Amino acid sequence: MSSINSFIFCRQTISHSPFLLIHEIMHLNNNVTKFILLGLTQYHLRKKIVLATFLLFYLGALFAKLLIIVTIKTSHALGSPMYFFLFYLSLTDTCLSTCIAPRSIVDALSKKTFSECMIQVFSYQFFGCLEIFILILMAVDCYVAICKPLQYMTIMSHQVHGVLVAVAWVGSCVHSSAQIFLALSLPFCGPNVIDHYFCDLQPLLKLASSDTYVINLLLVSDDGAICTVSFVMLMFSYVVILHSLRNHSAEGKRKALSTCISHIIVVILFFGPYIFIYTCPATTFPMDKMIAVFYTLVIPLLNPLIHILRNVEVKNTMRRLWSKKLISDDRR
């Protein structure tokens, strides 16, 4: 009887504005205390294969990113602001994939509580936005290094790039807080089955017991605008950078091209799927989940490999560090 009364109360409150009192709305959400994630497949054997693949991709990406992080932190040769931002990019990418892949394996074996789902929405939005900001900072650093080399150390001092990263963290926190506020403002009276393998706002909107048209518009203006505008700005900045290389020496041009091309590849791989997914939140395509797999599992593995293979300094520093380690181990 209490569940029926709760359901009636939920239905009565839907007619009110979802932004009236966040505390009351969170009590309505208790109508749905757990979510069931359908994942990529319901077949037992295929599910095992998918989970094993998730684990392999995650461990491979984790190893590659930790390799970059350790190399940058232990090498004095990679002390420029560019590698400072690369360090934070690898760290953010690690956190982004960690909040998806391990939880997907756990959630395939058990239900996900409401609070766990909201935490995943917040962390995914936070680290995704932070990665966008860091990619922008890397483009700014690249522009100053190539177009204003004489003022580079003055403009991109340790204090400046520390402040820039702090601003990126604050901006990401504001963005993710707005996103989680939208999620918590929705009443969930049932059903509780999410047709996805992790909690994201778009699948959650389909379960809401109210009209989500306004929320969809807010998603487009927030996620879609951030992704599209950032991508256009980044591509334009790299066009300007590549155009300015015509006045550089052959050696300087080769090093700058190696760095810029690796950045451009990472930007295209990162933003392509995000723009496709988040500029059309009201529309669902059959390949949406596969695209989500690409940007949550495949891209985190490709990003560090691109930076390792395309960046000569990182590659050479890794060789020197590992050579020293092997020599020291042999002497012992």
Automatic annotation (TrEMBL):
Signal peptide: none
Superkingdom per UniProt: Eukaryota
Subcellular location: Membrane
Alphabetical keyword list: G-protein coupled receptor, Membrane, Receptor, Transducer, Transmembrane, Transmembrane helix
Record-annotated membrane-spanning stretches: 49-70, 82-101, 122-146, 223-245, 257-278, 290-309
Main location (coarse class): membrane
Membrane topology per record: Multi-pass membrane protein
Domain (G-protein coupled receptors family 1 profile): residue spans on this chain: 64-307
Keyword Cytoplasm appears in the UniProt entry: no
Family matches, as InterPro entries: GPCR_Rhodpsn, GPCR_Rhodpsn_7TM, Olfact_rcpt, Olfactory_Receptors
Protein name: Olfactory receptor 4C16-like
Species this protein is from: Galeopterus variegatus
Lineage of the organism: Eukaryota, Metazoa, Chordata, Craniata, Vertebrata
